[in-house]
């Protein structure tokens, strides 16, 4: 009997110890899962998909400010590095959200790590995501701010440029009224009024053309365009002014090259380049227009023997209303928009324009455009047919 009680007691004790050990193991496992969740928390459902389609910058932070998820833009701008926010101002916004429990919105200026690059301006908004996370969203305002500044400058420049011919016409009108008894003076004032009216018309036309070029991201009526025809048009339009100043416009031999685009736009662009070359060339000098094929690019070069352009002005000459010599440009009837029109025409055709110049050695403007290939319905010249560099 005593032996039976001993066996039963041992059995109960074994069951109790086994159950207690099992409870201990289960509790330890649960604790380990909780610790693992703290160490490697998961992102709430749907956040991955949202960050994947965001065009703006998106970041999700855990309770320890580790970056759980971030959009590509956050890495590209250097906001996130090594799973942490690398921009102090952005981290401060997230910290404020944790302290207040409310969404925060601020503007952050992000300086570029590379010298010469413009700083970026971000609109940053951070808010709680559940009880443990913080989500940070940012929109890049840099381009919209730049466009606003350009628009303001454009309006200011237009107002300034229009004042001159309008003011001159007003003064000349009064002068004619006071000179009705002097036919010679009336004739002279009328000629000046006509010149100012022509200048006002040219400025208005350039403003309209430039506005269209900047507004349109694609060509409306693309077609195969003969470069020879475009050059003929530009030379012909500037012949009268060139002859009056005894400036010779020399052009290279026809090449038969074609590009894909709108002939009227390309003719306007090249006409502006040739016109500038004639205007800034001394009397009795020479302007050259040459064409060559470099790989898959048509290069049209316009060279003058003028005073040249300082190196610091090479990029700025393509800005609207920028003039290296403002007084001379006005005297020659320039609007200050010609090279801006050339730049935007080139960009709309998938090309570019550049300038080489040295003070005292003249200038060479090069318009580069993609050559038309078989995809546009015409074969590019073979190596044997490709023109050599034209001497101008």
TrEMBL record:
Kinase recorded as keyword: yes
This protein's UniProt keywords: Kinase, Phosphoprotein, Transferase, Two-component regulatory system
Keyword Kinase in annotation: yes
Reaction(s) the record says it catalyses: ATP + protein L-histidine = ADP + protein N-phospho-L-histidine
Location of this chain's protein in the cell: Cell membrane
EC numbers: 2.7.13.3
Domain Histidine kinase per the UniProt entry, residue ranges: 157-373
Any GO molecular function: kinase activity
Matches recorded under InterPro entries: BphY/WalK/GraS-like, HATPase_C_sf, HATPase_dom, His_kinase_dom, HisK_dim/P_dom, HisK_dim/P_sf, Sig_transdc_His_kin-like_C
SMART domains given in the database record: HATPase_c, HisKA
Top-rank taxon, per record: Bacteria
PANTHER family with a match to the protein in the record: PHOSPHATE REGULON SENSOR PROTEIN PHOR (PTHR45453:SF1)
Protein name: Sensor-like histidine kinase SenX3
Source organism per UniProt: Paramicrobacterium chengjingii
């Amino acid at each position: 009997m005593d032996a039976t009680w001993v066996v039963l007691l041992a059995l109960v004790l074994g069951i109790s110890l086994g159950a207690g050990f099992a409870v201990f193991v289960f509790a330890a496992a649960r604790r380990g899962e909780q610790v693992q969740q703290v160490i490697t928390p998961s992102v709430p459902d749907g956040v991955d998909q949202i960050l994947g389609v965001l065009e703006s910058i998106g970041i999700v932070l855990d309770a320890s400010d580790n970056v759980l998820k971030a959009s590509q833009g956050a890495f590209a701008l250097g906001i996130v590095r090594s799973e942490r926010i690398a921009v102090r101002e952005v981290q401060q916004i997230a910290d404020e959200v944790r302290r207040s429990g409310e969404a925060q919105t601020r503007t952050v200026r992000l300086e570029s790590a590379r010298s010469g690059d413009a700083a970026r301006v971000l609109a940053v908004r951070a808010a709680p995501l559940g009880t443990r996370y913080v989500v940070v969203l940012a929109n890049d305002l840099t381009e919209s701010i730049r466009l606003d500044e350009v628009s303001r400058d454009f309006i200011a420049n237009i107002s300034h440029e229009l004042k001159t011919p309008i003011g001159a016409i007003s003064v000349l009108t009064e002068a004619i009224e006071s000179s009705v008894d002097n036919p010679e003076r009336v004739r002279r004032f009328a000629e000046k009024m006509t010149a100012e009216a022509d200048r006002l018309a040219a400025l208005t036309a350039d403003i309209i053309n430039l506005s269209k070029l900047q507004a349109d991201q694609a060509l409306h009526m693309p077609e195969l365009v003969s470069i020879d025809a475009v050059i003929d048009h530009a030379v012909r339009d500037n012949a009268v002014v060139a002859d009056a100043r005894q400036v010779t416009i020399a052009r290279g031999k026809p090449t038969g090259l074609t590009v894909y685009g709108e002939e009227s736009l390309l003719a306007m662009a090249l006409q502006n380049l040739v016109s500038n070359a004639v205007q800034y060339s001394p009397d009795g000098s020479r302007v050259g227009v040459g064409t060559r094929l470099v790989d898959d690019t048509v290069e049209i070069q316009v060279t003058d023997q003028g005073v040249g352009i300082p190196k610091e002005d090479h990029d700025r000459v393509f800005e609207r209303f920028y003039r290296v010599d403002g007084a001379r440009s006005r005297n020659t009837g320039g609007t200050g928009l010609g090279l801006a029109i050339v730049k935007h025409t080139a960009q709309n055709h998938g090309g570019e324009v550049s300038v080489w110049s040295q003070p005292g050695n003249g200038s060479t403007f090069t318009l580069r455009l993609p050559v038309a290939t078989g995809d546009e319905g015409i074969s590019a010249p073979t190596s044997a047919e490709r023109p050599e560099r034209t001497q101008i």
